[in-house]
Write a structure and sequence with these properties.
The protein has 16 helices and eight strands. α7 runs antiparallel to α8.
């Protein structure tokens, strides 16, 4: 009996432990299920390990180009979330089955089945997670493509705006050049000359009176006071008397036509015809056998306007399609280099400068050397002004000329003497001295608009037989005109 009681007592205790174990296992399983359900709900709100469905640009983007929102398909996210919930439920079921199998060995089969179901649920979750990742990558690529498209659009609009600004600047430059080109006409520039000796000549020759000794005496007085010089005045009177002797002039009106014809013939000497037939706007082109650049040496006395002429000539050559370089050979006059800098900027031409007081020959040598390397068409060499009566200064010009010959064979190809028309007959003396020293090839007559002494151009051409290349009739950059004898004579005689 005591043994039987002991056995029954042990069985009762074992049954109690079994019941307690089952109860504990059930409680643990319930706790696991609750934990997985709560976790699944939290994950549904913010999926763990994956980026949010809100906008998140991959790389920094310019503020002008806003980022594009990356949006994943809602159905794909829902399927992924359901698969995650299934995994959580399967894990809870496996835990519950394992707790039950601990108390009842016969429940082990249910544990294996639950584990297979968990594995299947996990595979579905992996599949759905992979699909969500692929969808996210696709959406991100599309978003990046949109960002790039917007950036390209913004860059294209910026380029178009820049091109529009450039076109506007070009239009403004063309308008400025057009305004510059609309400078004085030659007739306007010769207004004072026409008001001088030409007005007196017209008053005499336009009357239609008979040609007698009194009229010839008055004509002689007008010509000798016209700043054309004694030599030229005598030449013109001789031409008139010769025609009178041949009975070609019946009255004063025919004398006017004869003088006009003779003046145009004098001005045409050495020009080879109108300036329009010359090379690029007044300067003859180099022969094909002579290599570029064409070197032009600009000389003259102080105050005639050499530096201004160089700048205006550079502008005109640029307008004719030539490339031009300026050489600042006036290294002695204060601010001469700065003045030429201003003109170079207006003409949009490069310039070579040296230090103030440096050797002008070295500066001009460097100018020609640079032009040869850069294949520039024309080099305009500015020089310091000097009195034609100073032998030492004239010798220095000869030295500069020899330096240019060393820099480029045959240079200078043109020696332009700038003459101030307001100096009258003194300009003829200047021209003679410079021509004897340098061999002047052409003249530039400046400030014609400011004097009644424009007739000096007739005396220069008649005495020296050297052509006038340009005339200056104003302050604008386009007021340097290629000299055309026919146009010049027409401006003198036809505008009454």
């Amino acid at each position: 009996m005591p043994f039987a009681l002991a056995v029954s007592t042990l069985l009762a205790v074992a049954e109690g432990f079994r019941t307690l174990a089952i109860a504990v296992a059930i409680l643990v399983a319930l706790a696991i299920v609750v934990a997985f359900v709560v976790r699944a709900r939290v994950r549904r709100k913010v999926p763990p390990g994956l980026p949010s469905t809100q906008a998140r640009p991959e790389a920094p983007i310019e503020e002008a180009v806003p980022p594009v929102e990356v949006v994943l398909p809602a159905e794909r996210l829902a399927r992924r979330d359901r698969a995650r919930d299934d995994v959580a439920a399967a894990q809870a079921a496996v835990a519950a089955a394992e707790a039950k199998a601990a108390a009842d060995p016969q429940a082990r089969a249910d544990v294996e089945r639950r584990r297979r179901a968990l594995a299947d649920a996990q595979r579905r979750l992996d599949y759905e997670t992979r699909k969500v990742g692929e969808a996210e990558e696709k959406a991100r690529r599309e978003a990046q493509a949109q960002v790039l498209a917007r950036r390209e659009q913004a860059e294209r609009e910026a380029r178009e705006a820049e091109e529009a600004r450039a076109r506007a600047a070009q239009d403004a430059q063309r308008a400025k050049l057009a305004e510059a080109e609309a400078g004085k006409t030659l007739a306007e520039g010769l207004a004072k000359t026409r008001g001088g000796f030409m007005a007196r000549l017209n008053a005499l020759l336009g009357t239609g009176k008979a040609l007698d000794d009194a009229a010839l005496a008055e004509l002689e007085e007008i010509l000798f006071s016209a700043d054309v010089g004694v030599h030229t005045a005598t030449h013109l009177l001789g031409s008139v008397r010769e025609r009178l002797a041949r009975r070609e002039l019946a009255d004063l009106s025919k004398v006017k036509a004869a003088l006009r014809e003779e003046i145009e013939r004098i001005l045409s000497l050495g020009t080879g015809g109108p300036a329009s037939e010359a090379g690029h706007g007044g300067l003859p082109d180099l022969p094909p056998s002579v290599p570029s650049p064409q070197v032009v040496m600009v000389v003259g006395v102080n105050g005639t306007g050499k530096t201004t002429t160089v700048g205006k000539l550079a502008f005109r050559l640029k307008q004719a399609g030539k490339s031009v370089l300026l050489g600042a050979g006036d290294t002695f006059r204060a601010a001469a280099g700065e003045q030429l800098d201003v003109w170079a900027d207006r003409a949009q031409a490069p310039i070579v400068r040296g230090k103030d007081g440096s050797d002008p020959g070295a500066v001009l040598f460097d100018s020609v050397a640079r032009a040869k390397v850069e294949r520039i068409d024309v080099v305009l060499c500015d020089t310091a002004g000097r009195l034609h009566t100073k032998a030492g200064l004239m010798d220095e010009l000869k030295r500069i000329e020899r330096t240019l010959q060393k820099a480029h064979g045959g240079a200078p190809h043109e020696v332009l003497l700038v003459v101030d028309a307001t100096t009258g007959q003194n300009a003829i003396a200047q021209a003679r001295q410079f021509h004897e020293a340098l061999g002047v090839t052409g003249f530039v007559l400046t400030k014609l608009d400011g004097t009644a002494k424009g007739g000096v151009i007739i005396g220069i051409c008649d005495e020296l037989k050297i052509p006038v290349r340009y005339v200056g009739i104003g302050e604008k950059i386009s007021d340097l005109k290629p000299f055309d004898p026919h146009e010049f004579v027409a401006a003198l005689f036809d505008s009454f």
